[in-house]
Specification:
256 residues; alpha/beta; Rossmann fold; four-stranded antiparallel beta sheet; 34% helix; binds adenosine-5'-triphosphate
Length: 256
């Protein structure tokens, strides 16, 4: 199990009271001949160390919400605070630096670099930030995620589940305040997807990591402790530790 004792520079003033992520009346309108109101005033607090799933029908605003919360896109209105820092006031360069140091990403398509080995992919965020990998942390992380033996393989030599576990290690190597995962199990069969999600949950517990997962899969969502249901750019339901059936029922309820 990875240790969490080495130096870190989380900007959190007090992680017990500052939510890992706070959204205040976040709205996002995509301009155009017919503007799209993708987010219509979302306010949320995500507790540090929590695992939250965001579900909703296609087009309900899940990816837009994740992109705004992660500082990949800027809202048209409202505030986004990550570990106490207001991303909406940061200049682009500072935002890029903040993201690099304090936010981790896991995508459906893994986004591993094909000509780099698994371990080189994992180290990449540190290299880009000009930081030196901590060998003990790196070894712990690879072992925890069950990919230590695969460290020298190229991404093309990994199964989907292995590639996603490498991508999770890459998201965690910088010890980010929050990890955002957009359909992380979408490219996997349901058994492998469930195993990857289990890894994310265990990671959250072991590292007191805050994780936000966007998914359309009720089984995946049910592995989170809290499920936020979006419809038409608004939060329409919130479920605490639901079963997959309860998530499906909430989604169907909103589809009517
Ligand atoms: N770059 C963009 N320009 C214009 N409209 C956009 C853009 N990105 C998303 N939208 C629109 O915003 C709304 C929300 O899209 P979003 O991708 O956030 O939904 P989603 O819930 O993630 O959908 P899915 O499950 O299909 O991925 C949709 O109506 C979509 O068409």
């Amino acid at each position: 199990m990875p240790t969490t004792s080495t130096t870190t520079s989380h900007p959190t003033q007090d992680h017990r009271t500052t939510p890992a992520v706070r959204l205040v009346d976040v709205r996002k309108t995509y301009p155009g001949r017919e503007p799209v109101h993708a987010l219509r005033g979302i306010s949320l607090d995500l507790r540090a160390g929590s695992v939250t799933a965001v579900v909703g029908q296609s087009g309900s605003g899940k990816s837009t919400l994740l992109n705004c919360a992660a500082g990949l896109d800027s809202p048209s209105h409202g505030q986004v605070l990550v570990a106490g820092h207001d991303l909406t006031t940061l200049r682009p360069d500072d935002l890029t630096r903040f993201r690099r140091e304090h936010v981790g990403f896991v995508f459906q398509s893994y986004n591993l670099i094909g000509h780099l080995s698994a371990v080189e992919n994992v180290r990449l965020p540190l290299v880009l930030a000009g930081r030196v990998p901590d060998p003990a942390w790196q070894a712990d992380l690879l072992a925890f995620l069950g990919v230590a033996e695969l460290a020298d393989r190229l991404p093309g030599e990994l199964s989907g589940g292995q590639a996603q576990r490498v991508a999770i290690a890459r998201a965690l190597i910088t010890r980010p305040a929050v990890v955002f995962a957009d359909e992380p199990t979408g490219a996997l069969d349901s058994r492998t997807g469930a195993a990857v999600l289990q890894v994310l949950r265990e990671t959250a517990r072991a590292l007191a990591q805050t994780i936000v997962v966007v998914t359309h899969d009720s089984t995946v969502a049910a592995a989170a402790e809290r499920v936020i249901v979006l419809a038409d750019g608004q939060v329409v339901d919130e479920l605490e530790a639901p079963t997959a059936e309860q998530v499906t029922a909430a989604l169907l309820n909103r589809a009517r």
